[in-house]
Specification:
Length: about 325
């Protein structure tokens, strides 16, 4: 099974970088392997970040890596490299992907996974027999399609709760995503695109891999960080865009009913950018019409990316 998956990666021309060593697609089966004693496999004892590129340039890579440093501090993980090294290796991996025949103009998804390392089985750090391991994966962005902006997302509010900040803190982007993954699977089983997770008091926190916003009477709202969410790089960019555009934006707790009654709801993430939510729990948001603030913020986000990365198109 693992081998057949790796063969599909070979066809996609996936680039893997393990601890600074680039493994080309034809060597994936032999070389793109992690030990069964690795703590990411044994305990989900790992962190990760995802960025995407535009015309080959990653958006806010440094911000993602600074968040990874924060995640490491939240779980007492001693990273083996400084973020300058991770940044250099990610850029090197993107370049290796795009240097392949026919891939020069392809945009990519880039994931970095950092495991605490491998050694003897057991929680204690004295069992470690290696430093942190890092793996960078570069895949074509086309592998992660989203519904078109005009169609939007069809979401379910999960019965499963987002982790309490005093459990596996959602502020930490750890490799421990089983809670989110199970929410996604339940939603997908019922025909939804994805899920939103509430907290124990019924306040909406975020999606399985994205932040959430709603608009009511011209005011944008999104849950505050202390409800227990990831401090999304895109979320932060959108809040700043609201300030620049003079659109009132508040960080407030709200239950799912506020979303049912909203004028607009949209998701944000590095892969989704600004993506409207058209249906929630089988109810149409705003009669199924895309709202003007979502359109404005989507355009403003595109401009931001274009200007910051000095894109041609
Ligand atoms: C749980 C969760 N919330 C929000 C996000 C969005 O974060 P960003 O905008 O930094 O991609 C992600 C991204 O993977 C996520 O996993």
């Amino acid at each position: 099974m693992a081998f057949s998956k790796q063969l599909s990666a070979k066809k996609r021309k996936t680039i893997i970088n393990i601890n600074g060593k680039i493994i080309p697609p034809e060597k994936l089966i032999e070389q793109a392997n992690v030990s069964v004693f690795d703590r990411s496999f044994l305990y989900g004892d790992s962190l990760y970040e995802v960025v995407r590129t535009y015309e080959g340039k990653p958006f806010r890579l440094k911000e993602h890596l600074l968040r990874m440093e924060k995640s490491a501090a939240l779980c007492q993980m001693k990273l083996s490299q400084g973020i300058k090294v991770y940044e250099r290796e990610m850029l090197k991996s993107i370049a290796a992907y795009r240097a392949q025949p026919g891939k020069k103009n392809e945009d990519v998804y880039v994931r970095i996974v950092v495991s605490r390392g491998s050694g003897k089985i057991g929680f204690g750090l004295k069992n470690l027999e290696s430093e942190c391991l890092y793996v960078i994966m570069v895949e074509p962005i086309s592998m992660f399609p989203n519904p078109p902006f005009g169609k939007g997302l069809n979401l379910q509010v999960s019965k499963r709760l987002r982790n309490h900040p005093k459990a596996v803190d959602p502020a930490m982007k750890s490799g421990n995503y089983l809670n989110n993954l199970l929410s996604y699977l339940t939603a997908a089983d019922a025909g939804y695109d994805d899920a939103l997770l509430p907290d124990q008091q019924g306040f909406i926190t975020e999606g399985t891999t994205f932040n959430i916003f709603y608009v009511k009477r011209g005011i944008v709202a999104t849950p505050p960080l202390d409800v227990g969410i990831l401090d999304g790089v895109t979320r932060r960019a959108i809040i700043n865009l609201c300030v620049e555009l003079g659109i009132p934006c508040r960080e407030v707790r709200f239950p799912k009913e506020y979303l049912y009654e909203a004028d607009e709801v949209f998701a944000s993430s590095s892969l989704k950018e600004v993506l409207p939510v058209m249906n929630l729990d089988g109810k149409k948001i705003n009669g199924g019409k895309i709202g003007t603030i979502s359109v404005t913020l989507k355009a403003a986000f595109e401009d931001l990316v274009k200007n910051e990365l000095k894109l041609n198109k």
